[in-house]
């Protein structure tokens, strides 16, 4: 059986951390145990208590990072056996961490084709370019062969999703505690100490400095509530004009009783799947997280029995790429032995 050391784990963790995470919180942490297994833990200081009260989104984020680790190991010819520990809710392993999975190094593995697209995956939060007919055809063919993805396209379906997303977004943004938590993970100025490392900065949000400063001033104060009472709330969160430019919206769904770790692994593969077709993505998680919105989506776009909506992504060609803002690799690996 192969063995790895801490220095190699740091390199592996950096590659794994290219995976998406909710609000770019990057909660996945790694450590080697006394048997040479890799342990994955969720950093609870990065849990969104208001936006993600059950911790499911944090689990999905850790699952995506786990898939990134599996791919990084496979690129080095190392296979793993995975023990999903999320359902055990192990909180006494180490203070402020939740043990999520154990990876036992196993037989040799072959690199996966999807892994080569991890550096090319990014979120595009602006208008998309028109998709060429052959691009759209490839996307439709891929969705038809992918069991956990449903495609919504055409003006009527996109308009429905765009309007529902704006209504759902306004609904949750009216909760000041939600806004405060969101703002805590937004980096509205390049002078923010975490601007280049985590959260959502103005480059990722496709904002200029003045727009960012205005957004912070409104969202982090009672001004949003005042504007909303004046009927301006919808315009402050509206994305419909951008959503409608997407080539399609992709509904990612998984079994209702599936561990978020497993769903998160599948979500990363899903995103890399359309990345290799030349599409960028932009999540609309509120359509899955807000029960009323999820039900409206299910009514219009029926899912397989026993499946739940995990996320909805707008996809389309982007005119440029957006850099990934990630924590330093050494910050992803825990020191010492678990208690």
Beta-strand portion reads 15-25%
Report the span from N to C terminus: 25 Å
Q: What name is given to the CATH topology of the largest domain?
A: NADH Oxidase
- Poorly predicted tracts of residues: none
Topology as H/E string? Answer: HEEHEEHEHHEEHHHHEHEHHE
Largest sheet: 4 strands, antiparallel
Strand order of the largest sheet: 1-2-4-3
Number of DSSP strand runs: 10
Which word captures the global form? globular
CATH first level of the largest domain: Alpha Beta
| Rg value | 20 Å
Total separate domains: 2
Number of helices: 12
CATH superfamily of the largest domain: NADH Oxidase
Based on helices, strands and strand pairing, what is the structural class?
alpha+beta
Mean pLDDT: 95
Question: What is the architecture of the largest domain at the second tier of CATH?
Answer: 3-Layer(aba) Sandwich
Helix percent band: 25-40%
How would you describe what is shown here?
The protein contains twelve helices and ten strands. The chain has two domains: 6-118, NADH Oxidase (3-Layer(aba) Sandwich), CATH 3.40.109.10; 133-316, NADH Oxidase (3-Layer(aba) Sandwich), CATH 3.40.109. The strands form three sheets. A four-stranded antiparallel beta sheet has the order 1-2-4-3. It has helices spanning 6-16, 56-74, 133-144, 155-173, 176-184, 209-219, 223-229, 233-237, 240-243, 260-275, 286-289, 291-300; strands at residues 28-32, 38-43, 78-84, 97-108, 149-152, 186-187, 200-201, 248-255, 280-283, 307-316. The model has no long low-confidence stretch (mean pLDDT 95). A hairpin with a 5-residue loop joins strand 1 (28-32) and strand 2. Helix content is 37%, strand content 18%. It is an alpha+beta fold.
């Amino acid at each position: 059986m192969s063995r790895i050391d801490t220095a190699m784990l740091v390199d592996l963790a950096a590659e794994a951390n290219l995976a998406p995470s909710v609000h770019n919180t990057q909660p996945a942490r790694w450590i080697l145990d006394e048997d040479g297994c890799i342990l994955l833990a969720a950093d609870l200081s990065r849990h969104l208590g208001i936006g993600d009260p059950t911790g499911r989104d944090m689990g999905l984020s850790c699952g995506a990072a786990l898939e990134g680790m599996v791919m990084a190991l496979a690129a080095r010819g190392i296979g793993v056996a995975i023990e999903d520990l999320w359902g055990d809710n192990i909180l006494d392993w180490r203070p402020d961490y939740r043990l999520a999975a154990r990876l036992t190094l196993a037989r040799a593995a072959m690199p996966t084709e999807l892994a080569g697209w991890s550096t090319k995956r990014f979120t595009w939060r602006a208008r998309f370019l028109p998709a060429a007919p052959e691009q759209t055809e490839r996307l439709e063919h891929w969705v038809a062969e992918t069991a956990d993805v449903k495609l919504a396209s055409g003006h009527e379906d996109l308009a429905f999703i765009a309007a529902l997303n704006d209504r759902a977004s306004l609904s949750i943004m009216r909760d000041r505690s939600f806004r405060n938590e969101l703002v805590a993970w937004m980096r509205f100025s390049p002078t923010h100490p975490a601007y280049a490392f985590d959260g959502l900065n103005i480059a990722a949000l496709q904002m200029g400095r003045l727009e960012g400063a205005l957004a912070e001033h409104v969202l982090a104060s009672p001004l949003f509530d005042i504007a909303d009472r004046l009927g301006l709330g919808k315009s402050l969160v509206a994305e419909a004009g951008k959503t409608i430019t997407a080539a399609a919206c992709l509904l990612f769904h998984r079994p209702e009783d599936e561990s978020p770790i497993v769903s998160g692994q599948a979500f990363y593969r899903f995103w890399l799947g359309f990345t290799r077709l030349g599409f960028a993505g932009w999540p609309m998680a509120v359509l899955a997280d807000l029960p009323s919105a999820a039900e409206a989506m299910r009514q219009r776009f029926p899912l397989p029995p026993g499946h739940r909506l995990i996320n909805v992504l707008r996809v389309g060609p982007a005119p440029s790429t957006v850099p990934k803002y990630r924590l330093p690799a050494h910050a992803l690996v825990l020191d010492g032995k678990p208690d």
